[in-house]
Design brief:
202 residues, mainly alpha, hpI Integrase, Chain A, 9 helices, 4 strands, globular
Length: 202
């Protein structure tokens, strides 16, 4: 029997993102919520794994003084070493522009400038730090702790209602279509639409 994957509802996504985006701790610099919000959007709108997220560099988001049109996850960053490219949503593009204004610099000479860091651009946040950020924000915004990977599941499930299995496989970076098939589960809305469709006259 196929396992039903848990995902975030659209309302839960909105609540989580609003909570991340709005500063609530006066001791935290105002730009920190923007970073945390953008990380969540990258996972929700581009399907990044947390291990990929922390390796992303500024230049992968911002090039020639403008946001890139698509995010390229490099082979060395991807879990299965398969490069993939994901077009940016409007929401992610807007977040990138804000990150460039408040976090990123275009004249960093000393090694890689990571996209998501705490103090030094050469030292990215760890997977554990990102997990703590998402778990804390979700507990406070939607009443339950969620792992960052649930954001990737949500991205994949949303895609399944809009495109083919092969396209979802490519966007997720799965080497096998079998891995992608776990997202083909029907939900209550799908079942209702199917039955409602019987009411339509041919």
């Amino acid at each position: 029997m196929k396992t039903q994957l848990l995902t975030l509802t659209p309302d839960e996504c909105d609540k989580l993102l609003r909570w991340l985006h709005q500063p609530r701790d006066r001791d935290v610099p105002a730009r920190v919520p923007l970073r945390n919000y953008t990380m969540a959007v990258v996972m929700l709108d581009a399907g990044c794994r947390v291990g990929e997220l922390v390796q992303l560099r500024q230049e992968q988001f911002w090039f020639a003084d403008a946001p890139v049109k698509a995010l390229c996850i490099e082979k060395k960053q991807a879990k299965n070493k398969h490069e993939r490219t994901i077009d940016l949503t409007t929401r992610l593009r807007d977040a990138i522009e804000e990150m460039h204004r408040h976090w990123w610099t275009s004249d960093w000479p000393n090694g890689p400038a990571y996209a998501f860091f705490q103090v030094r651009r050469s030292q990215p946040l760890t997977c554990r730090q990102v997990q703590r950020i998402i778990k804390s924000a979700s507990a406070q915004s939607i009443g339950r702790e969620v792992h960052p990977h649930l954001l990737r599941h949500t991205f994949a499930t949303r895609l399944m209602s809009k495109t083919s299995l092969r396209v979802v496989q490519e966007l997720l970076g799965h080497s096998s279509i079998t891995s992608t098939q776990i997202y083909t589960h029907p939900n209550s809305d799908d079942r209702k639409k199917a039955i409602d469709g019987l009411n339509d006259k041919d």
